[in-house]
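Recall from the previous lesson that a structure prediction takes nothing but the amino acid sequence as input. Here we apply that procedure to Sulfotransferase from Heterocephalus glaber. The sequence below is the only information supplied.
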Amino acid sequence: MSSQSQLSVLHKFKGILFSNMSSEELLNSLDSFDAREDDVFLVSYPKSGTHWIAEIIESIPNARITLTSSIELGDISKLEELKMYSQRRVIPTHLCYDLLPANIKQKQCKIIYIIRNPKDTAVSLFHYYRDNPNLPYIETWSAFFELFLRGEVVYGSWFDHVLSWEEHRNDKNILIIFYEEMKKDFPKSLKKITTFLEINVNDSEINKIARKTSFSEMKNNSVKENFDPNHTVCALTSDRNLVFRKGVVGDWINYFTSKQKRVFDELFTEKMKHSQLARFLEE
Ligand code: A3P
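The prediction returns the following C-alpha cells.
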C-alpha cells in the first residue's frame, strides 16, 4: 500500500502522516496551546511504551497529577478542554520535537521521552495497524516493513522522530527513558522518573508500583475496566484493549527475515551514525 492509498484513514500535516483522530484544525491550532510551567509531557513514537509510563506516573502516591488524553487527539475544542484541569497536567503526545507547540519549549515544561528498540516498535505498530480501525489495514508484515523503512507510517519515520528528540537530550527539562531498561531494571527507571518529577518514593511504594504496572496486571485491568475514552494516552485509539499485546523485548525476531534484518541494520547504522542513543537500541 502506498502512502497515497493510506490517505483514506490518514492525512498529512506538515509532511507527516496523522490519523483522522487528529483533526487538521486541531493540529493547526496547537501553536496557540497555553502551556503551564508545571505541565509534564509524555512523548513517544507510537508503540514505545507510552501507556506503561502513563500508568507508572498515575500510580505514584502523592503525585497530584491528572493524566489527560493526547494533545493531538480530537478536534478544535481540545485546547479548551485542556484548560479545565486544575491539577498538574500530564499530557501525552506522539509529536516530533519540531511539531511540539512553541509555548511548551519556551516554558521549559518537563518532558519524558520514551524510546524503544525500533525493530520491536515496528512489529508492535504492524499489529496495531491490523487491529486498530483508525489505521489502514496492511495485509502482510513485508508490506508494512517497507512502509516503516520509508517512514510512510503514522508520525513518520522512527529515525527522524528519535533524532529530533535526541538533539535535545541534554536540555535539563528532558528525560529520556528506554523501554528495554524499564524491563531490565524497573526500580532504576522508576527512580529516574520520580527524581525528575521531584517526587519521593520509598522501596515499598516502588514494589507496589511495579506490581500495579506489570504487563499482566495492566492487560487484565484493561479488560475489566469500563474504559474512559478521556484516558486514552495514544492519539490513535480510544480502545485500551488494543494496546496490550505481548509486552516483551525481542519479539522482532519472530517477524524479520534475515534479509530484512540486514537491510534494517544497514539503515540504522547510516541514520544513527551520530547518535549517542543508538548503542542502547541495538537488540
Ligand atoms: P507490544 O505490541 O510489543 O506488545 P504504547 O503504549 O506506546 O502504545 O506501546 C504499546 C506497547 O507497549 C505494546 O507492545 C504493549 O504490549 C507494551 N506495553 C504496554 N504496557 C506494558 C507493560 N506494563 N509492560 C511492558 N510492555 C507494555
